[in-house]
Specification:
Elements (H helix, E strand, L loop, with lengths): L14 H16 L6 E2 H9 L12 H13 L3 E4 L8 E4 L1 H4 L4 H13 L2 E2 H8 L8 H13 L5 E4 L9 E4 L6 E4 L5 E4 L4 H39 L3
Antiparallel strand pairs: 1-3, 2-3, 4-6, 5-6, 7-8
Helix pairs in contact: 1-2, 1-3, 1-5, 6-7
Length: about 230
């Protein structure tokens, strides 16, 4: 296993990146005969109706761009198999995030479905890894949370429930909307890149206004200097 000191900072993913990475990990563990995955297969996996929250309708171009972003972050790489003209893709989470199979199973669920309780994760992740009961799931989650950097965190229970909910820390903190009927739905946290663009746009606007002000002041000084020179002509 990789030395924990070598993982000194946690990569930050967009929502699309979490969906692609989560789908790759899930398919590696549930259908190894179809793994690594083609682009078309990965698009279908990202958009499947079961085990995905929120639902998505990503197209090939969006998934292809997301793959490239994950390749830069060393979490996905392309595989060219002998005798196949179709490129395949597989994740690199086992190495880059230092994850054993049990940890990959839980992280895949959190990446694909958002915040969940230990009980929900126990029921859903067992198709990827045979946990020894809910205590085993809880201990694995606790280990993921206590790592440096931490890969998961927990949030308050849903209304009417007692169990805390776990979420992955690879993406911005999720937003959970609580409904009046006691149900809840998960909304991905805002992408920091959007905020960065907005901040840059604001800074550019402010800089532009400052330049305009300086140009106006310079023109006034120029006019005053011309008037001053006329006194001596």
């Amino acid at each position: 296993m990789e030395d924990a000191d070598e993982i000194d900072s946690l990569v930050e993913l967009s929502f699309e990146e979490t969906r692609v990475l989560g789908s790759l990990i899930e398919k590696e563990l549930t259908t190894p005969e179809y793994y690594p995955m083609s682009l078309n297969g990965l698009v279908n996996a990202c958009n499947q109706k079961n085990n995905r929250l929120p639902k998505t309708d990503l197209d090939e171009d969006e998934v292809k761009q997301t793959i490239e972003e994950l390749r830069i972050k060393r979490l996905v790489h392309r595989v060219d198999l002998v005798g196949s003209r179709v490129p395949k893709f597989q994740h690199n989470a086992e190495k880059e995030l230092d994850l054993i199979k049990a940890e990959r199973a839980l992280l895949a669920e959190l990446l694909n479905r958002g915040p969940q309780t230990t009980g929900e994760l126990n029921n859903r992740a067992n198709r990827m890894f045979a946990f020894d009961g809910i205590n085993d799931v809880e201990e694995t989650l606790q280990e993921l949370m206590e790592r440096e950097p931490s890969l998961v965190g927990n949030m308050d229970p849903a209304p009417g429930q007692k169990e805390k909910r776990w979420f992955n820390k690879l993406a911005p903190p999720p937003i959970v909307e609580e409904m009046k009927d006691g149900s809840s739905f998960y909304v991905p946290g805002p992408d920091k890149r959007i905020n960065q663009v907005e901040e840059m746009t604001k800074e550019f606007t402010e800089l532009k206004e400052e330049v305009e002000t300086l140009r106006y002041q310079l023109r006034e000084i120029s006019d005053e200097f011309k008037n001053f020179r006329k006194q001596f002509e």
